[in-house]
Structures are given as C-alpha cells and as structure tokens.
Design goal:
Order of helices and strands: EEEEHEHEHHEEEEEHEHEEEEHEEH
Organism: Microdochium trichocladiopsis
Shape: globular
Number of strands: 18
CATH architecture: Sandwich
Radius of gyration: 20 Å
Biased composition (Basic and acidic residues): 361-385
Helix content: 10-25%
Distance between the termini: 24 Å
InterPro entries: IPNS-like_sf, Phytyl_CoA_dOase-like
Strand content: 15-25%
Mean pLDDT: 82
CATH superfamily: q2cbj1_9rhob like domain
Number of helices: 8
Structural class: alpha+beta
Protein name: Phytanoyl-CoA dioxygenase
CATH class: Mainly Beta
Number of domains: 1
Oligomer: single chain
Largest sheet: 7 strands, antiparallel
CATH topology: Jelly Rolls
Region (Disordered): 359-386
Length: 399
C-alpha cells in the first residue's frame, strides 16, 4: 500500500535559543509527492520513508546551521487500532496520551544516576556544593535552560546518559510501544533542578513539542526519574487527553503564546508550540485534565509529543534528577537524518528530542554573561562504552 505525502525542509541559522534555532526567513522547498511503504503489526501499521528520498535545503557550508531530515509528514506515520486492548500500560497511554510505568529501574540504580549527575555538576569547579544552598545560583553552575535543563557541554553523550537509555526495561518499553526492535534514540539532555533558588524566575510554560503540520503520533517522549517527586517537588505537568485533540485544536489557525521564555516571534521554530491560558481552558472544557506527575525513584513516564506539558519548578527542598529519553522506529528516518545523527555522535553533539528527524546539532557554546562559557566542553567528561547496541540506537550502525 502506498500513501502520498509531502516532504519539506528548511534552512536554519543559529540563534540564542537552545532548541529552536530557525532562520527568521526559512527557505521551504516542496520536494515531491512520494509513496510511503507500509509495514503492519497486530494492533497498528506504520509507514516507512523511502530510502531514495532526497532532502534538499538551501546551501549552507556549516553542518551546525541547519536542521537535518526536517520533513513534515502530511499523514500519520503510524496508525493504531483504537479498539485494541493490550492488557498493560499501553491501554492507559493510548487513552490519555501519557502513562507512568513503575519501577523500571531499581531505587539503587536511580540513586547511582542521581549521584553521577551531582558529580557532573561539581566537575565544573564553580563552587557548587549540594549541601550548601547558597551555591544554588547560576555563578556556581553550568549554564542551563529553565533553571535545570542541561543540553550543552556534550552532556547528551555522557556515560550516565547512554547507560540510562540502554537500561533493558527502557528499551523494552519503546520496543513494545512501536512494535519493532529497530529503534533510534534522541541525543537528549537531563534535568537537575535545585530548589529554593533566588536568582531565577519561573512561570508555567504549557507547550507541545510537535509541529501542527506533523500528523498523528510521530514521537513519544520519556523521562526516567531518579529522585522522590511529590506534589511540592519539581516535576512534569501533563494535560491528560490533549494528544487526541491535537488535530481538532489546530484545525483553526493558532498563534503560539508570547511567553517570557519563548523564542522571538519572528522565528518559525520547528517543533514547539506554546499555549496561552485561553488555550489551556479550551482543552479543559473538552474534558482534559492538567496533572502534576508524581513519581518515585526508578519510575518512567511516557507522553505523546502532541500532549500539552511543562516542567514545574521545585517548591520544596528536594533536588530533581531526571534523564530525558525518546526513541522512534529507524524506519521513520531518511538518509539525511541518519547521516546527521552519525556526525552529531562523532562530534559528541546533542540534538532535540526527535530521534528520526529535525536533527538540530546543539553545538554552539552556552552563553554566560553574554560570552561563550569558558567551562564549555566538546566531549563528555565520562565517555560511554561503545557497543553495537549503542551505535544502532545512535543511528551510526545499521540494523
């Protein structure tokens, strides 16, 4: 079976915004109307990008100044049987667009990861001490986004990050979700949010991480939790049920909310839409519920990228420790995206949370006081152990 779709890509250029670096005048090219090959599974089917698709972009000599494999699919990449009953966590996931899966790793393993994150923070020798709250300030910490999201300093390829991605139950979850063992992993960051900070301001920023032009479920984000996360602790807030209303909401022209942390309005960023309070009410009026996700060390949460969500800042005294993990079928990727992932891996560069497209290298040095951070790193502090499994998940080695 063949399904026509349009493929487009955009020329990008650097900006101060870590994940949303787009040229204010993107050059969009309509490439072709090409068939997608369909694969089938008991409860769903998905469509594969043909290997001979050629992605075209405005010429740019810099690998870092563009997003790679940035196609927008006009139809679902995967179609699930809405009447299927799985008898496991997938039933909740497909109903609500999100699910918490308990005890994916042991509490001891979670403590190991939390400790490794603390060692990483202190390795910059900026005076940070987890036992001294007076050091919970920017001057004592590497540069982060939203007070705790770390995506620079080659942190995406730290040994602890790859160990977390390859935890057996983590891989099994994504294999079960997508119905394939042939997966790609994002080169995503981590979150270490310190409580009681007085040097930063925070406000809710409800958003989704899928461009309205992408149809259906094309990415599912994950978060592996390492520390206790209760009502007052920093954590994830999700709008349950919002993924199913994605197409209905965007059937009308919508303007992304001008939040204080939003990129400048002239930028057409790739996969971010910020919701206003009016938008939040639109979803709530249709039965959706905004819920703070409480978790224990070792728990894992999944959410469809169409789901409204945001990170809540700590109100108590607990430090937040998490690793972001996203995997999608390698069949979703085209050759340009795979080549870009290979180059990112070889250069220890991070990307957005998208494993198979919109491969945007996070190569620019983080800015501290208007200048590149002198503590910047271009390789991990602790390099991962290179295995065939890692290389396949990274898109470097074929299945």
């Amino acid at each position: 079976m063949y399904l026509p779709t349009f493929y487009i890509t955009a020329c990008l250029s650097p900006s101060p915004w870590p994940l949303f670096n787009l040229n204010p005048h993107p050059q969009i090219f309509l490439l072709s109307t090409l068939p997608l090959r369909q694969s089938t599974h008991q409860h769903f089917s998905y469509f594969r990008t043909p290997p001979d698709v050629t992605m075209v972009a405005k010429h740019d000599d810099s690998f870092n100044n563009k997003s790679h494999g940035a196609q927008f699919e006009g139809k679902d990449l995967i179609t699930f049987d809405e009447n299927a009953v799985y008898g496991d966590w997938r039933d909740e996931f497909h109903k609500q667009g999100c699910v918490v899966i308990k005890n994916v790793i042991t509490k001891e393993r979670a403590e190991y990861y939390a400790q490794k994150q603390m060692e990483w923070l202190k390795s910059f020798d900026l005076g940070f001490d987890e036992n001294d709250p007076s050091t919970y300030t920017a001057e004592h910490l590497p540069v982060s986004f939203k007070g705790g999201m770390y995506m620079a300093y080659a942190s995406s390829h730290e040994k602890m990050a790859w160990e977390a991605r390859m935890e057996p139950k983590i891989v099994e979850i994504f294999e079960t979700l997508w119905g394939t063992k042939e997966l790609l992993c994002s080169f995503d960051g981590m979150n270490i949010s310190l409580p009681n900070r007085t040097d930063i301001k925070w406000s809710p920023w409800p958003h989704c991480d899928q461009n309205p032009r992408r149809k259906g479920m094309q990415a599912v984000q994950g978060l592996l939790n390492y520390a206790p996360c209760g009502d007052k602790d920093g954590g994830l807030v999700l709008m349950k049920g919002s993924a199913k209303l994605f197409n209905e909401f965007f059937a009308e022209k919508r303007e992304s909310f001008d939040h204080e942390d939003a990129p400048p309005p002239e930028l057409e960023y790739m996969d971010l839409f910020l919701f206003s309070q009016k938008d939040v009410k639109w979803f709530e009026d249709r039965g959706c519920e905004l819920v703070k996700i409480n978790m224990e060390p070792g728990d894992f949460v999944l959410w469809d990228s169409r789901t409204m969500h945001y990170a809540k800042f700590p109100e108590g005294n607990q430090i937040r420790h998490v690793q972001y993990i996203c995997m999608t079928p390698v069949q979703f990727a085209n050759e340009e995206a795979l080549a870009a992932k290979k180059e990112c891996f070889e250069k220890w560069q991070g990307t957005t949370h998208w494993p198979h497209c919109n491969i945007r290298p996070t190569d620019d040095a983080p800015m501290r006081d208007g200048k590149p951070c002198p503590k910047n790193r271009t390789e991990p502090r602790e390099k991962p152990v290179i295995t065939d499994q890692l290389l396949r998940l990274a898109g470097v080695k074929s299945y």
